[in-house]
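User: Protein folding is very new to me. Would you mind checking the protein record under this note? It all follows right here:
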Amino acid sequence: MMISTKGRYALRVMIDLAEHFAEGYVPMKTVAARQNISLKYIEQIMPALSKNNLVEGIHGKGGGYKLSRNPKEYTVGEILRLTEGDLAPVNCLKHNAPPCEKKQTCKTLSMWQDFFTLTNNYFDGIKLSDLLG
């Protein structure tokens, strides 16, 4: 399983917003400059974070985004699953995957299921606040 640029950048944006949590709404151009990520790319990531209530945004003067909750209330797992769609290491374990015809005889399925569980538990065990400083 590879974490895409989208997932890595979403984490960086969320960490930046967590570091500046007390400041309220932070303009994305400020985050883009601090994180050295293109503003265009950040603008592609933010709607999903906003729609799923991870961040709140306001437009116009004094606008920007801020976290919807305290940094210790987010897990890395929820952020990555939102941006990656899934953390499944193989197609047959993806959410809503069609049933695999080899499921009954697959010699590797239990290994992939264990790896998937370990991956989710690992990322769900890390709070956004754990990544600050």
About this structure: Helices lie at 5-19, 28-35, 39-51, 76-84, 109-124. Strands lie at 55-58, 64-67.
